[in-house]
Design brief:
- By secondary structure, the chain is α/β, with parallel strands linked by helices.
- Helix content is about 25%, strand content about 20%.
- It contains ten helices and 17 strands.
Length: about 400
């Protein structure tokens, strides 16, 4: 049975079976699903009416569009624009649509916002799942890839989105960030059978980092309860919570940590809207740069108006870090006190005082080399520790 009646037309469906092995994935139905011919303009109008009806009937506030890149691109743009305009017409000012574009920066740029790499002036869906970040961030946070991989990814994004995303805060509106989801074979959180809580700090470090980076963070269900499925198929990360005793436990340590993280994000507007800069760091206080080795330290700032929030992440699973991180000297002159707004370790940490460096060699993110003096803040982190520094508001 096909509902509504307007969709009961054979010419609206591909009806060609699955794609040929090794052939183009755009020829044939989408796996076992019968694919609609979204390039058909009449069909597009029907689909738009269907989803506008859902908004009105059920007070829907947003849509996630699965496999967006397999739709006809013109329809994808038209659909996103139609949802936004209809929502505005009935008083919904913040209706949100985001798409799954399982691809690279260049492909994603064809679908989000006032797209920069395809013809036309329609505003498509509001955002895309941030797969370029997902392809790198988990490996960096687990100490298997260097923090410089994340820096390189954002440099590519600035180039691809140069007419839309400046260096900085606009990306918050265009990307839905995540560490894991239902299509993967393992969750970000790993529980070692020999030592089940060994990597708890790694999981909370990853969550805090996700909520501090630009974007709209998406938390996969069960993360707040410590689910840690992994295996050889996506079924291993789709564990059922329903029916288990105390399945939605608000006292679970992961649950309470998520509360702490989201509270800091709510209290610090810079973490939601701020400009974004990677920060060179140093172990000896003389040579500063980005970590280029696995298990290194990732440091970045979010700046909004006159407030800077500094995030320092030690991705090593076994080694601590003691050193210095550069901060904005105009916002944080020597003597400025930065509070530890969040740490995923239990030990309380006192405020950090901004210092003036001596002669230094700074390897900037863009490749330039400069010299000080600079404003720096001294930090000490244990393995798998994150600290978020700033002024309590």
């Amino acid at each position: 049975m096909v509902f509504p009646d307007e969709l009961r037309r054979n010419e609206y469906f591909r009806r060609q079976g699955g794609p040929s092995p090794g052939g183009p994935d755009t020829i044939g139905d989408f796996a076992s699903l019968k694919q609609l011919l979204s390039a058909n303009y009449e069909l597009g109008n029907v689909l738009i009416k269907c989803f506008q009806y859902l908004i009105a009937a059920f007070d829907v506030d947003g849509f996630r569009v699965d496999t967006l890149k397999y739709l006809d691109q013109a329809f994808a743009l038209r659909f996103g624009n139609a949802m936004r305009e209809y929502a505005l017409s009935i008083g919904k000012r913040n209706f949100f649509t985001y798409g799954e574009v399982y691809d690279n920066e260049e492909k994603i740029s064809q679908y989000i916002g006032r797209n920069v790499s395809a013809a036309g002036d329609l505003v498509g869906v509001d955002a895309s799942l941030d797969f370029p970040l997902f392809f790198r961030l988990p490996a960096v946070l687990k100490g298997m890839a260097p923090p410089s991989d994340i820096v390189d990814m954002y440099e590519v994004r600035k180039r691809v989105e140069q007419n839309i995303v400046s260096s900085h805060g606009e990306a918050t509106r265009f990307f839905v960030t995540f560490l894991d989801n239902h299509d993967q074979h393992s969750r970000f959180y790993y529980s070692d059978p020999a030592n089940p809580h060994r990597y708890d700090d790694q999981a909370t470090m990853g969550l805090a980092c996700l909520y501090a980076l630009p974007g709209i963070p998406c938390l996969y269900y069960g993360t707040e309860q410590g689910l840690h499925g992994n295996g050889d198929s996506d079924q291993n990360v789709r564990e059922a919570l329903w029916g288990k005793p105390n399945a939605f436990n608000p006292a679970n340590p992961f649950y309470t940590m998520v509360q702490r993280i989201t509270r800091v994000r709510s209290e610090q507007p810079a973490l939601r809207y701020g400009r974004f800069y990677f920060r060179p760091l140093s172990g000896n206080g003389e040579q500063f740069g980005v970590s280029t080795f696995p298990g290194g330290v990732l440091a970045f700032s979010r700046i909004l108006n006159d407030q800077e929030v500094v995030v320092v992440v030690n991705t090593s699973t076994g080694q601590g870090f003691a050193g210095f991180v550069i901060v904005d000297s105009s916002l944080n002159p020597p003597g400025t006190r930065l509070d530890v707004l969040l740490c995923n370790k239990d030990a309380p940490i006192g405020p950090r005082v901004v210092l003036s460096s001596g002669p230094v060699e700074i390897h900037e993110v863009g490749g330039a080399i400069s010299n000080g003096p600079a404003s720096v803040v001294a930090v000490e982190l244990g393995p798998m520790e994150i600290q978020i520094l700033g002024m309590a508001l």
